[in-house]
Write a structure and sequence with these properties.
By secondary structure, the protein is α+β, with helices and mostly antiparallel strands. It is 51% helix and 9% strand. It has 2 domains: 2-80 and 191-204, Glutaredoxin; 87-179, Up-down Bundle (Glutathione S-transferase Yfyf (Class Pi), Chain A, domain 2), CATH 1.20.1050. It has helices at residues 10-22, 41-46, 68-79, 87-97, 112-132, 142-151, 165-175, 178-186, 193-204, and strands spanning 2-6, 26-30, 54-57, 63-66. It has a 4-stranded mixed beta sheet, covered by helices on one side. The longest helix is centred in the middle third of the chain and has 21 residues, at 112-132. The model is unreliable at 200-206 (pLDDT under 50).
């Protein structure tokens, strides 16, 4: 059994979707990013480094994993799925998973124009790769889950899918997966996703 402490943001959805794909029993402990999860005693107890989301694996002596990337790797290797067992296949997944995307975040980029340009560069890279393969690392993996959760929010930087046909089809394929739908529902928000994330960022960046 795993406890998931997360807010309904791309980082949280990465983990909830992976948990659904891997069919691991889990309980959600909602964390309000707007209030700053690190401020709550419960979150301080489970997240030693103050990063969100956090998972606590009660089947592994209460092992705690903070942040989406490490959590995805841990869960995939725990179940032996969504990550190839061979070194070459694993390296392919890790290369895509660890691709820096902070520059696509308008909250971190120097200006909205820079964010949009970086997003277009990455979309071009993804689209080129997805013309060759249905998924980023060959077969469906945690790399696809991780990038799908932020690429679907392309409206942040006023980027549409025109000219990125392979990327658009990839978005649709993953959105149609039952586990994806369940993972999104696990961390619900009453707002449209882009509006919710913008509101969270506006509060965190005060």
């Amino acid at each position: 059994m795993i406890d998931l402490y997360a807010a309904p943001t791309p980082e949280g959805w990465k983990v909830s979707i992976a948990l659904e794909e891997l069919r691991i029993p889990y309980a959600v402990h909602p964390a309000s990013a707007c209030e700053g999860p690190g401020l709550t005693p419960d979150y301080q107890r489970v997240s030693r480094c103050g990063c969100a989301p956090v998972i606590v694996d009660h089947d592994a002596d209460g092992c705690r994993i903070s942040d989406a990337g490490p959590a995805l790797v841990y869960l995939a290797e725990r179940q032996g799925q969504l990550m190839p067992a061979d070194a070459i296949g694993r390296s392919r997944v890790m290369q895509w998973l660890m691709l820096p995307v902070d520059g696509t975040d308008p909250a971190r980029a120097p200006d909205p124009k820079s964010s949009r340009e970086e997003m277009l560069r990455l979309f071009t890279l993804f689209d080129r790769r997805l013309k060759e393969s249905d998924y980023l690392a060959g077969s469906y993996s945690i790399a696809d889950i991780a990038h799908w959760c932020w690429v679907r929010m392309h409206a942040w930087s006023d980027v549409d899918m025109h000219g990125f046909a392979s990327l658009a089809h990839w978005l649709q394929r993953i959105a149609a997966r039952d586990a994806t739908r369940r993972g999104l529902r696990a961390l619900p928000t009453s707002e449209r996703p882009a509006e919710h994330v913008w509101r969270v960022k506006s509060i965190l960046l005060r």
